[in-house]
Predict the 3D structure of the following.
Amino acid sequence: MREFVVLGTASQVPTRTRNHNGYLLRWDGEDFLFDPGEGTQRQMIHAGVTVSQITRICLTHVHGDHCYGLPGVLSRMALDKVNHPVHLHYPASGEDTVRALVSVASPGIDLRLHPHGGSEHGGPGHRFAEPIGQGLYVRALNHRIEAYGYRLVEPDARTLLPDRLAAAGIAGPDVGRLEREGSLGGVSLAEVSVPRPGQRFAFVMDTAPCQGAEELADGADLLVTECTFSDDDADLAAQFRHLTAGQAGELAASAGAGTLVLTHFSSRYGDVAPLAEQARSRAGGAAVVAANDLDRFAFPQRRAF
Ligand SMILES: [Zn+2]
């Protein structure tokens, strides 16, 4: 099962209708928790999801709206006796904040800290060389403090076609051999299968437009971006290094993204429909949705090559 669950959609200041950030990506039995702001534990209850399957927690940066929910979630995991390893990814420069947040959480879970940063993951010329977790990659963003976006990639593969296998007389253990070796008895894998492109998820939080955001978003089936400001407040966006709605749309268009989910709205906008419209007008072929708390997005259908 692959699903993106929105727990909160407010930026710095929550509102009556928008909790601080928080997002759960449910991905084949492993749950990734992104940027748990204040109240994330309770928002999970409202969303009907539990902490029990969280295997990775990913922080983009250590501003409070992206991490102050961490002690509550970790404590809840201890209370619920989560006994698998839980990996916490965060910028190395946020080490003091992360350790402080972790230190006030109830002990008892197998929490593994993975700071990342520097040229290894953010510098030029390091285009997704090594994942930091199972299919999980980071790229540097451009915010007021060190910040990273995340990208989850399923490897491309091929889907075998049973009728063509049968016609070629390949069955049983030979199927595995054909998959491993690429050809068998004059029959190539390509003849009996079709490409199955891996799905891609991208998570781009607080940033000015930058190369890292573009690389994360490239070809994403589901692209989640911050959308703090309206295009009318582009000067504020530039000053505080955030995206405007139109810039979020442009990112989706240049990336060829399938669906763009907008979130992290400034509390100054009671109605974000105009922001969605601004993004949509520049998003190319991407479907654009302004997220509300507790929205859920089934992962889009695989796209054909
Ligand atoms: Zn923020």
Q: What stands out?
A: The chain has a mean pLDDT of 92.
